[in-house]
Amino acid sequence: MARSILENRIVKLEGRNPVRPYEHLTDEELDARLAAIAVRIEAEAGVKMADYVEALAQAVSADEPLPEGMTKMEIRSLIASFRNVASTRSHHAQ
Is residue 67 pLDDT above 70, yes or no? Predict the structure, then answer.
């Protein structure tokens, strides 16, 4: 079940919906992919992922300008994905 959860998070974070391309990966390999995505997002945003997600959530709530090319729905989906990944990783670390 953990692999399925991590796989779903990767698909959402990468913004594409391939037909189970991560099925052959181990949980550790999937976790490494998530970490790589987080590093890339942090590098592009210039802040830690948790801070970026919080800033996006505040911007959406306050009807502030959004990042160019992103809709509120996309941002809400992204926020939910980030939070689910954090929750999943926290749960599996216990």
Answer: yes
What DSSP state is assigned to residue 25? Answer: S
Does pTM surpass 0.70? no
Burial of residue 53 (CB within 10 Å: 0-12, 13-18, 19+) is: buried
With 0-12 CB in 10 A as exposed, 13-18 as middle and 19+ as buried, what is 85? buried
76-94 per-position pLDDT tens digit: 888 887 777 666 655 555 5
Residue 15 has pLDDT above 70, yes or no: no
- 3-10 — which CB contacts under 8 Å span 24+ positions? 3/27, 3/30, 5/84, 5/88, 6/30, 6/31, 6/34, 6/88, 9/34, 9/81, 9/84, 9/85, 9/88, 10/34, 10/37
Helix (H) or strand (E) holding 6: helix 2-14
